[in-house]
Amino acid sequence: MSAELRSRMREFVDGAVIPAEPVLIAGGERAAAALAELRAAAKARGLWALGHPAEVGGGGVPFLDFVYLNEIIGRSEFGQLAVGSVSMQDTLMLHRHGTEEQQARWIPPMVAGEVLPSVALTEPGVAGSDPTLIETRAELDGDTWVVNGHKWFTTGAAEAGYCTVFARTEPEETPPHGRISAIIVPAGTPGFEVLRAIPTMGHDPSDHYEVRLTDVRVPAANLLGARGRGFAVAQDRLGPGRIFHCMRWLGQAQRAYELLCERANTRYAHGSLLADKGEVHRYVAESAAQIHAARLMTLDAARAMDAGEDARVRIGLVKFWGARMLHDVVDRAIQVHGALGLTADTPLERMYRQARYARVYDGPDEVHRMSTARRLLRSPEAAPWR
Predict the structure, then answer these.
(1) Could you tell me what percentage of the chain is helix, strand and coil, using 3-state DSSP and rounding each to the nearest 5?
(2) What is the pLDDT of residue 241?
(3) What DSSP element (H or E) covers 354?
(4) Which secondary structure element, helix H or strand E, spans residue 40, and what is its range?
(5) At what angle do helices 278-306 and 63-73 cross, to 10 degrees?
(6) What's the pLDDT tens digit per position in 237-284?
(7) In angstroms, what CA-CA distances link 237 with 50, 92, 95, 148, 171?
(8) Nearest in space to 112 (alpha carbons), one of 178, 161, 173
(9) What CA–CA distance (Å, rounded) separates 15 from 10?
């Protein structure tokens, strides 16, 4: 990874994106204008869509190199939107599984930042961590899929150009992981109804939506990947996505750590600076150790994936470890800031909410620990240090 490129990305995120956060958080027309300015600046500086494949109009930065960039992009929750990486998981999914027609229709506008994708996987009536329980159904009526179901936490559904809906298409006698298919539903399709933005931990409205599909009809050609292979399509999206999440969490944790140290070095209480107190020394040392350990684990998982190795154990380990690391570091930074840390005058309270989300989305901690432990018990030699 070019040190010069990383330096330019850091300068842009710290110098342009982070200062714009108060306006972006407020939303509305000013936020939209500010985001448009940031995107234009990113394109002008050669920082736009760097991780998208070159053959579809992206920057063509290799996967492992982009992982390093994502660490910097993650310093701001708006970094992905500002540099055009927010749609990468879906671009890569379409690039791998989509037909030529699907790729031509959706990938160029996603890479250009003109269209955002969404994915409808989680349902309110069944455990989202177990996709074999999906109740949404899609049936073929001639050359048309008819989809009926109820989804929620469909991120970005109200603004997206299309939604990839995961639905049950195969009979009960089919093995559980072969019953689900992925189907592309363009925005505005009759019967695709966005019910509400779901309030989450102080985010009201949020960008997570509840969606109902009632006799939604789309062409049979909108099937993404092979019929009954939706689970494999989802995993191909979630695998690299979890690495990207973990690197962005590192960016957030590093920023929280910097705020912790700055506060400790300037805040005076009970006869000395906070930086002179033993408990704060523990906060600093443990935060640095956790960040460093999570970073090495994440980079190792990315290296294995980039080399075409089976990286499932590494990804499972770093998914729950990285989420806990982020939570712990932000929590300590809030504690050192005292009452100020609970306010919106610093980014820490928003970071704390994001850290709590991290332990649930793309698979809760418990599922990753369970599935990883099972793999290791079956094959102890799969441990990442072997």
Answers:
(1) 55, 15, 25
(2) 82
(3) helix 348-358
(4) helix 28-44
(5) 150
(6) 887 788 989 999 999 999 999 999 999 999 999 999 999 999 999 999
(7) 18, 7, 11, 23, 25
(8) 161
(9) 8
Question: Is residue 205 reached through a cis peptide bond, with omega within 30 degrees of 0 on the bond before it?
Answer: yes
DSSP secondary structure, 142-183, as one string: TTEEEEEEEEEEEETTTT-SEEEEEEE-S-TTS-GGGSEEEE
> 177 exposed, middle or buried (CB, 10 Å; 0-12, 13-18, 19+)?
middle
Q: How much is the pLDDT for 1? A: 59
Average pLDDT over residues 178-204: 92
Tokens of 369: 């620990």
Helix axes 230-266, 88-97, angle to 10 degrees: 160
CA 219 – CA 212 distance, rounded (Å): 19
- Tokens representing 135 are 């109740």
Mean pLDDT over the full length of the chain? 94
Given a contact cutoff of 8 angstroms between Cβ atoms, the answer to whether 20 and 61 are in contact is no
Given a contact cutoff of 8 angstroms between Cβ atoms, the answer to whether 89 and 328 are in contact is no
